[in-house]
Amino acid sequence: MTAFCATHQEIYDEVLMSYKICEDYDVLLPKFVAYGGFILSHTSKPVIIEDQDLVDSFLPPLPDEKGWPHMWIDPERPLMFGNLIMPSGFYYEFRMKIHDAMVRAKEKIKSVAKDFEKIFGRNYGNGLIQEYKMDGADVGMVIYGDLALQMEQAVDDLREEGYKVGMVKLRYLRPFPVEDIIEIAKKVPLLSVVDRATAFGSPTGGPVSCEVKTALHDVKGTARILPMINGLGGREVKGRIQA
C-alpha cells in the first residue's frame, strides 16, 4: 500500500493508522507512508504527539500465536519466509492473494479513519480521499501530498474571484480509490489531475493522471480529464501558478 501525506502531523497520524490497517488479519500488507522530499522531509513544524494511553486505546493489542500464526516460530508447524516461489508452484495464487488483500484494505482504511477521528479529533476524509469545497464545483483539482495545502489556498482565492473550483486530495495511490473517483467524476465537468512526477512517453500525462483515466475509461457521463505536471523534484510551486 502507498499513502501520501500533506503535513508533518499527517505523517505521524498515518503511521499510527498504518499499524491498525496493515496488521489486520484480512490485510497483512506492507505500506509506504510517503511525503514530499525537501518540503516536508527537510523542514520542521509542531506536531501533536498523543498520550501513550490514548494511542493504546486506538491500536488493538498484539495478537498471540493463535491470532497471528505466521508470526510465531513453532517446530510443529514449519513455515518458510522469503523463499523463491517458482512459476510452476504457487506464484500465481500468491499474487492473487496480495491483490485480494489490497482490495479488502479499502474498507479497512475507511473504518480506521473514522476510528481515528473519534479518538484524536483529526479528520482525513473517508481515509482514501479528502474533498475540499467540491460541492457545486465546476472544476475539481485532483492532487496528492504537500501540494494539497497550497491548493486549498488556491481554491479559496479562485472562489473569491467567482470560479467554482474544488479539490480532491488523494490520500492513497494503492489501493487506488476507483469508486470514489468515479463518484466525483460524475458530479463535475472537469477534473484537473496535478502530478509531481512524469511518465515518460505516456499519452496520459503523469502517473496519477493515468490512474484516474483508467478508472473512468469504461464509465459514461464522467468528467473530462486535464493532466498537469508541476513541482518536479521538490521545486516550489508559486501561488499564482496554482490558481
UniProtKB/TrEMBL annotation:
Transmembrane segments: none annotated. Residues 4-113 form the Pyruvate flavodoxin/ferredoxin oxidoreductase pyrimidine binding domain. Residues 137-238 form the Pyruvate:ferredoxin oxidoreductase core domain. The keyword Zinc does not apply. GO terms for biological process: response to oxidative stress. GO terms for molecular function: oxidoreductase activity. It holds the Pfam family POR_N. Keywords: Oxidoreductase. This is Pyruvate:ferredoxin oxidoreductase core domain-containing protein. It comes from marine sediment metagenome.
